[in-house]
């Protein structure tokens, strides 16, 4: 079956205020967001939804729907990111988190890793003062204070070097990010991957806080409270990479099985917290135990946190992550304790 996906850059360009525009034609913003990130496959969406989006973007359905086009994934070697919500190279990533959930540490780690891979990292400072950004900006190649300066930095390295550009949601609300992305598309600057965060945490309460996205990282308060870092929610984080033809089918299969196990584990955990392990059916104990081990395995020590944790940072290739998770799901780690799987790299079995 031919893989289909929405033309997110086109939507971003033609319908910058997609939230209100979607509501005006009777579409739920959450549905539109899920279509953009691939959580809802285009092939399973309602025709009226696609027609309404095409009407908003003033384009044809053929222009709105991309068929079998190659999308490249940026492999970060962060297990939970690469498995559940890979970065689309040249796309836009949106971080949805309250303050204190660890999004800045994940970004600092991402910059640390991608700089070693040859990416140029550029951070646009928000207008308001945010002291918590000090550690993050220490991992960035270039810090700028205006959109124009960010664009000049991009032009200076294009097309020799790929760029990771990061900005706060405040610049989205002013429309500056949309103007920059349109300028990038119209000039010689290529391969700019944009990451948007929300330092105030208001994005948690909105369906489309950044407009159309290729990748969404939803941070999880429960994981953060239990120090299960990175606290990227494995159920609600998603990426359009998972719905395109070039991706190995193994990745999608393992991702879906892992989500199914973790979803059920979370339901059972609520019961165990109240009634204890004896409060769930005997037939579900194995599911609970394997889900608990998978959740522990998805934690990971970061290089940028070594001074605080005393644990050496770990990189795990996607292929290794997929093999390890299959082992956990199939019972290959049943003999290991949960504690032994916390903050490790790859499995030792």
From TrEMBL:
Q: Which Pfam families match?
A: ATP-synt_VA_C
Q: What is its main location?
A: membrane
| Record-stated family | Belongs to the ATPase alpha/beta chains family.
Location in the cell reads: Membrane
Q: What is this protein called?
A: ATP synthase A/B type C-terminal domain-containing protein
Please name the source species: Mesobacillus maritimus
Domain named ATP synthase A/B type C-terminal: residues:
246-330
**Domain of life from the UniProt record:** Bacteria
Give the InterPro entries listed for this entry. ATP-synt_VA_C, ATPase_a/bsu_AS, ATPase_alpha/beta_chains, ATPase_F1/V1_b/a_C, P-loop_NTPase
UniProt keywords, alphabetically: ATP synthesis, ATP-binding, CF(1), Ion transport, Membrane, Nucleotide-binding, Translocase, Transport
Is Nucleotide-binding tagged as a keyword?
A: yes
């Amino acid at each position: 079956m031919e893989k289909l996906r929405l033309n997110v850059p086109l939507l971003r360009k033609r319908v910058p205020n997609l939230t209100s525009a979607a509501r005006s034609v009777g579409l739920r913003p959450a549905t539109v967001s899920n279509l953009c990130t691939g959580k809802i496959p285009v092939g399973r969406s309602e025709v009226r939804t696609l027609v309404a989006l095409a009407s908003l973007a003033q384009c044809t359905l053929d222009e709105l729907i991309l068929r079998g086009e190659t999308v490249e994934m940026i492999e970060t070697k962060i297990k939970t990111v690469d498995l559940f919500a890979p970065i689309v190279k040249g796309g836009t990533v949106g971080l949805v988190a309250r303050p204190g959930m660890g999004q800045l540490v994940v970004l600092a780690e991402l910059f640390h890793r991608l700089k070693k891979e040859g990416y140029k990292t550029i951070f646009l400072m928000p207008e308001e003062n945010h002291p918590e950004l000090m550690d993050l900006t220490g991992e960035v190649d270039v810090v700028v204070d205006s959109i124009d300066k960010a664009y000049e930095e991009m032009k200076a390295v294009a097309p020799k070097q790929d760029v990771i550009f990061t900005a706060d949601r405040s610049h989205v609300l002013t429309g500056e990010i949309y103007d920059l992305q349109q300028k990038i598309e119209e000039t010689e600057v290529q391969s700019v991957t944009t990451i948007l965060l929300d330092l105030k945490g208001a994005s948690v309460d909105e369906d489309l806080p950044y407009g159309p996205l290729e990748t969404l990282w939803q941070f999880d308060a429960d994981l953060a409270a239990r120090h299960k870092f990175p606290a990227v929610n494995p159920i609600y984080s998603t990426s359009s990479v998972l719905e395109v033809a070039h991706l190995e089918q193994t990745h999608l299969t393992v991702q879906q099985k892992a989500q199914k196990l973790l979803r059920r584990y979370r339901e059972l955990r609520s019961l165990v917290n109240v009634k204890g392990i004896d409060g769930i059916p005997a037939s579900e104990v194995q599911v609970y135990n394997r889900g608990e081990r998978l959740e522990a395995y998805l934690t990971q020590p970061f290089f940028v946190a070594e001074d605080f944790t005393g644990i050496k940072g770990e990189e795990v290739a996607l292929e290794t992550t997929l093999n390890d998770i299959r082992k956990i799901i199939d019972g290959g780690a049943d003999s290991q304790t949960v504690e032994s799987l916390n903050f490790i790299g790859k499995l030792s079995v």
